[in-house]
Amino acid sequence: MIDVPLSALEVAMVQTGTRPVETLRDTTAFAQGLEQLGYHRIWYAEHHHSPAIGAFPPVVLTAHAAASTSAIRLGSGGVLAPHHAPLTLAEQFGTLAALHHGRIDLGIGRGPGTFDAATARALRRGAGPTTDAEYHDDVAAILSFLVDEVALDPLPEPWLLASSTAGAALAGRLGLPIALAHHIRPDNTRAALDRYRATFTPSPWCEQPWVLVCVEAVCAETEEEAAWRVGPMDVVKSGLLEGLSEIPFPTPADAAVHPFTEAERQSLAGFRAQQAVGTPESVVRRLAQLADETGADELMLTTPVYDLRDRLRSYELIRKYAEATTAP
Known about the structure:
Elements: E1 6-10, H1 20-37, E2 41-44, H2 58-68, E3 73-80, H3 86-99, E4 104-109, H4 117-123, H5 132-150, E5 157-162, H6 165-174, E6 178-180, H7 189-199, E7 211-219, H8 223-241, H9 252-256, H10 262-273, E8 276-278, H11 280-294, E9 298-302, H12 308-326
Parallel strand pairs: 1-2, 1-9, 2-3, 3-4, 4-5, 5-6, 6-7, 7-8, 7-9
Helix pairs in contact: 1-2, 1-12, 3-5, 6-7, 11-12
């Protein structure tokens, strides 16, 4: 049913009752487990000052995972350009690509990676939010520095992350493969894809439009168990709907008794319908549908569940069912 590569986005959720260092240690087992399962790539997201997500730099996680695995592709999904000097990013990921031949991706994004204004100012050394023109200049500078200053062989594979038509248009104009954040703003996916394909200009990085769609995927043996596992992330999302940023990642038991309002339940149900949550059959069917609707060349799964074993089990169930239903 699924005839495109499957990959994973590591968000590094910090579980209530644990320390961030334990989440950090889990990232190694996660990378090794997904490599064994045959996933194509793992990307690491950049976040800051969150009680629910570890503030682990993508370049560091990429380097550590690359040293702990042998074949799976690794990289940022994404490293946030406004927080970093373009030459620094080019040097960091260029070096990694040269050390780990053909395995390193440089996914570039714009989002602040934090809901705290003071943290955002600290990351930008007191500067205000970046403008569209500044972001476009930063991305162009990173690409230029990779070729003209770093000039190692091979270079990392650059991607542009987007959740809007503006970001999609930039990816198209620069001739970069695009990673669409369907797991964050699913209502924007169709319009962003249309803009990307309409504006795409071939480049040395990419000869034709190339689309990765990131989707939230939580899989278990039963629908009830899948709903149990997705509960903690529902609590975090409900807090964000209320404008709250200091939301820890609760246990499934605590999430099961969380007092959601009716409006929150409706919003969460609407969001979940556009993702992939359920049994292996229903999840793989939904992923295949999404790949068909978007024309995606690759699907990236993000699975924000409480326990590492449950997370790896979700990826295992999806991979095995997908292989079983596409075997000749």
